[in-house]
Amino acid sequence: MSRVAKKSELYCFALAVACIAYLTVGTTSAHAADAPTKTEKADKDDKPSKDEKDAKPEKTETPDQWAKRIELLGMRGDDSFAKEKADFIAKNPDHPARWSLRFFEILHDFKGRGGDEAAVKAAKDGMAEIMAAKDADATVRERSSMAVVQLSMRGASPEELTKLVSDHIAAFPDSKANGQLANMVVSSVARGDKAKAAAALEKLSKSDVKEIAQIAEKKLAQIKVLLDLQKSPLEMKFTAIDSREVDLEKLRGKVVLVDFWATWCGPCVAGLPEVIELNEKYHDKGLEVIGISFDSNKDRLEKFVEDKKMAWPQYFDGKQWENVYGRKYGIDAIPCMWLIGKDGKVIDFDARQDLPKKLAKLLDE
């Protein structure tokens, strides 16, 4: 990985920690929920927003009001945050809000240090201090616990991640983020070999943590459907956006690449040139490509397909993540490509990796 890519990855990781840990569980600030996004700011032609006005100190502020204003500065990453925080602590050394301000200070330090292993340890230690503080607000302790989970994710095994999330849910059973965290655990287990994933999900479905057990049970059912697709031919029949009739049963004897994608999916679009090239190279040798679009706008999809010269048929129902085939087969992330052998059975649920080599081998058989 290049140095630039590494730096970008660490910055995005720090930003993800801040966003997920802070925004997912809410804030004690009365203004944070109203904070404009970058897009909204652009739409307002750089006019001062309500929050930007509110972030300016009032003539008289109570300690609580002052703390809330500094929180908003911290959430934005404002340069004045450090000085404001220091001034607040100097005048209010025992105020409970110091822990919320400490939370943002930790995130700022983490980002400033580049997110290396030493920075991760320092951030986790700082969050642990907040979680142990008896006078820290419950919301601050909760978001700190969430941050520890996020900081621990890199390199964590599914078992380690399961314990981290289970501990968080046990400590904060009413957290709005619990479903999201449980889904992360299940997704980490469901990757890779489907048979192994099924065995791991079977154990998780019996977890004492109900959020994990429920999601694992649902994912297990989806995995079992996929395993069946390796034993019997995949059934898929629809009318494409260009009125072509698609029926996998009629494509027996050919190798079929099923591409679950969307025009709004950056990695999907980035991988298109390779698929177009492979389709042109192998179509006459027995390759058929089928697109399953997760788009919501048919006109936009049709224009995109035409502009990119995508010659293969596209399924569209406008339901995005509620897409019929996406729901049926548990597609919860795109891009996703399946390879179907000449007998109609799915032979690869992760076809994107080394796709040219896989196609060359299958079409030579």
Give a brief rundown of this model.
The chain is built from 17 helices and seven strands. By secondary structure, it is an alpha/beta fold. Mean pLDDT is 84; it is low at 1-48.
Task: Describe the fold and architecture.
The structure is a single chain. This protein has 365 residues and is an alpha/beta fold. Helix content is 55%, strand content 8%. It has 17 helices and seven strands. A five-stranded mixed beta sheet has the order 5-4-3-6-7, covered by helices on one side. Strands 1-2 form a two-stranded antiparallel ribbon. A hairpin with a 5-residue loop joins β1 and β2. α1 runs antiparallel to α6, α4 packs antiparallel against α5 and α6 packs antiparallel against α7.
Taken as a percent bin, the fraction of beta residues is 5-15%
Overall average residue pLDDT: 84
H/I helix tally: 17
Residue ranges: pLDDT <50 for 5 or more in a row? 1-48
Strand order of the largest sheet: 5-4-3-6-7
Tell me the radius of gyration.
25 Å
Largest sheet, described in full?
5 strands, mixed
Count of distinct strands:
7
Helix coverage percent: 55-70%
Q: Please tell me what the overall shape is.
A: elongated
End-to-end separation in angstroms reads 36 Å
Helical/strand content category = alpha/beta
Order of helices and strands: HHHHHHHHHHHHEEEHHEHEHEEH
